[in-house]
TrEMBL record:
Pfam family membership, one: ABC_tran
Location of this chain's protein in the cell: Cell membrane
Single annotated GO MF: ABC-type oligopeptide transporter activity
Alphabetical list of InterPro entries matching this protein: AAA+_ATPase, ABC1_TM_dom, ABC1_TM_sf, ABC_transporter-like_ATP-bd, ABC_transporter-like_CS, P-loop_NTPase, Type_1_exporter
Protein name in the entry: ABC transporter ATP-binding protein
Gene3D superfamilies: ABC transporter type 1, transmembrane domain, P-loop containing nucleotide triphosphate hydrolases
GO cellular component, one term: plasma membrane
PROSITE patterns for this protein: ABC_TM1F, ABC_TRANSPORTER_1, ABC_TRANSPORTER_2
Keywords: ATP-binding, Cell membrane, Membrane, Nucleotide-binding, Transmembrane, Transmembrane helix, Transport
Length: 579
């Protein structure tokens, strides 16, 4: 919670301003019943028109003052709430962008979206309400009590009765509804989760004709959300009429008791009406305060959910005194590296040691789940090693900043990810100021130019959200081009050629050798064809290194490699492939 409050610090001067205007508004509103009492007692009863005009004009001026104060304080409250909400949303976005894969897996994507939108919205609404009502109500309430007591002490029991009844109603709603608010936000998370899964997996759902099952899954969650919403709304809708009943009841009570006092000439009629208004102010203030007691816990739930994200300390941090790479070349060395995923019982990688040199291609091959992608993910520090060290040019990558490290790396993920925009804007993710020539060169190397040329707008062709309007192979080629635009020292290809046909795969590797041959290239692959020409091949088997060497060396010395090779190609094909 404290984490969220700090985003209000810069709004303290505005909040002081809001309090000043609210005080002005309360003073104006509290003055009005007094003037009304004067008009009745000294003007209407005595038939003094001049007096009525004079006090009437003062009342108009005081009312205008109240309106001005109310408008200014509302404007300032809205500004404070919207501004702080913008800051909180920004902080959430920045925080989540800094999350490593380990922290991302702690929260579901759907929950992170609900927290950044719905929860922030809740906090924003409550901020406005708190600034307007929670600050206004005590000033108004205390002022009205003082004025009411000054007007008539003998009627004060009526307000006492009303307040007691209101407290009972509010407490009942409080304990009934409050626990439901937390559940409400959780159900909203669930709805978002199902909705997101459904939308991203729409084609699979259709292909497996599981629309009905999915609809049922969504309906169940939707029904649960409806039930809680209905419960909360029902409790709330009972509360308002009950409170109106109390207010009307107390008005009758005051008029009834006041009439007796007026009859016995111990109270003037104007004072009775003024008292009625003060009593309404007291009750309304009390209502506002109790309403805040219901709203605040709900906002507190949202604040806690936001705070939980903001309080996460990223596991991957920059060193306090970072080293810099002098003349970086991009040599990557795995020095007895072991790694276990957070919360996993067993190691995924065990004692991995190899060096990938600049100017050479290092391929990593192995069966699915053997740990190839995990090896690759340790290089840009998506995860940190559990034992041993990964070094770049002899420096432990944990001793340099993540920015400097990632600056040197061109990474192509297993699943081609594109962002909505144009082909050019996607390539510029690699280098913000990449020129048209640089983009074309990278696209040519990635064998993407031939299909870009077929597009009506070439590099300016629109890419839909998630790259749904390009094929899997085209997406992979654009992802490769994006990495190449960067002109990095190290290129990491995580099974990035799998969607390419053999001819394109071969042409791409040849172009890579020519264009970025000086860099360190590390390729994770499933296909033996992709790794045949590599300068060294690391063979992974259930998290261990089963062998390292060239294709020829491994065919002689590594059973696991030989098995993979022969399962994909015959001996003659392997021979031919080499030539
Ligand atoms: N985020 C994660 N949390 C926990 N375990 C994981 C995570 N990612 C992968 N693993 C596990 O680590 C092991 C190695 O996974 P990895 O993705 O590195 O294999 P891979 O050789 O690249 O497989 P593939 O060729 O199918 O992509 C697998 O058993 C996998 O279940």
């Amino acid at each position: 919670m404290r984490t969220v409050f700090k985003y209000y610090k810069s709004y303290i001067p505005l909040i002081v301003g809001i309090l000043a205007f609210l005080f002005g508004q309360a003073m104006c509103e509290l003055a009005l019943p007094g003037y009304m009492s004067d008009i009745i007692n000294n003007g209407i009863v005595k038939g003094d028109m001049d007096y009525i005009w004079k006090i009437g004009m003062i009342m108009i001026l005081v009312s205008c003052g109240s309106v001005v104060c109310s408008i200014v304080s509302s404007y300032l409250s809205a500004r404070t709430a919207a501004g702080s909400a913008r800051k909180i949303r920004g902080a959430l976005f920045d925080k989540v962008t800094d999350f490593s894969a380990a922290e991302l897996s702690e929260f579901s994507t759907a929950s992170l979206i609900t927290r950044s939108t719905n929860d922030v919205q809740m906090v924003q609404q409550t901020t406005v309400m708190t600034l307007r009502l929670a600050c206004f109500a005590p000033i108004m309430g205390i002022g009205a009590v003082i004025k009411a007591l000054r007007t008539s002490v003998s009627l004060s029991w009526t307000v006492g009765v009303a307040l007691a009844v209101i407290v009972v109603i509010m407490l009942m709603s409080f304990f009934l509804v409050l626990p439901k608010f937390k559940v409400l936000q959780e159900k909203l998370d669930r709805i978002n989760l199902i909705m997101k899964e459904r939308l991203t997996g729409l084609l699979v759902i259709r292909a497996f004709t599981t629309e009905k099952t999915e609809e049922r899954r969504f309906d169940d969650a939707n029904e649960e959300l409806k039930k809680i919403n209905m419960f909360v709304n029902r409790a709330m809708s009972f509360m308002m009429p009950a409170l109106m009943f109390v207010m009307n009841g107390v008005s009758i009570l005051i008029i009834w008791a006041g009439a007796h006092l007026v009859d016995s000439q111990s109270l003037m009629i104007g004072d009775m009406l003024a008292y009625l208004q003060y009593a309404m102010h007291v009750i309304m203030s009390f209502l506002y305060i109790t309403m805040m007691f219901i709203m605040l816990p709900r906002a507190a739930v949202s604040m806690q959910r936001i705070g939980k994200v903001l309080d996460v300390e990223p596991r991957i941090e920059d060193p306090a005194e970072p080293k810099t790479l002098q003349q970086p070349k991009g040599e990557i060395c795995f020095d007895h590296v072991s790694f276990a995923y957070p919360d996993a019982d067993e190691k995924t990688l065990d004692d991995i040691s190899f060096t990938a040199k600049p100017g050479q291609t290092t391929a990593i091959i192995g069966s699915t789940g053997s740990g190839k992608s995990t090896v690759l993910n340790l290089i840009p520090r998506f995860y940190d090693v559990t034992e041993g060290a990964v070094k770049m040019d002899g420096v432990d990558i944990r001793d340099i900043t993540q920015e400097e490290l990632r600056e040197r790396i061109g990474y192509v993920p297993q699943k081609g990810v594109l962002f909505s925009g144009t082909i050019a804007s996607n390539l510029q993710y690699g280098k913000e100021d990449a020129t048209c020539d640089e983009m074309i060169e990278a696209a040519e190397t990635a064998q993407a130019m031939e299909f870009i040329k077929t597009k009506e707008h070439g590099l300016d062709e629109e890419v839909a959200q998630g790259g749904t309007n390009v094929s899997g192979g085209q997406k992979q080629r654009l992802s490769i081009a994006r990495a190449l635009v960067k002109k990095a020292n190290v290129y990491l290809f995580d099974d990035s050629f799998s969607a390419l046909d053999f001819k394109t795969d071969q042409a791409l590797r040849k172009a890579l050798k020519e264009k970025v041959g000086d860099s360190t290239i590390i390729i994770v692959a499933q296909r033996i064809n992709t790794v045949l020409d590599a300068d060294q091949i690391v063979v992974m088997d259930e998290g261990h290194m089963a062998g390292i060497g060239t294709h020829e060396e491994l065919m002689k010395s590594c059973e696991v490699y030989k098995e993979i090779a022969l399962s994909q190609l015959s001996e003659e094909e392997l021979e031919r492939g080499r030539k």
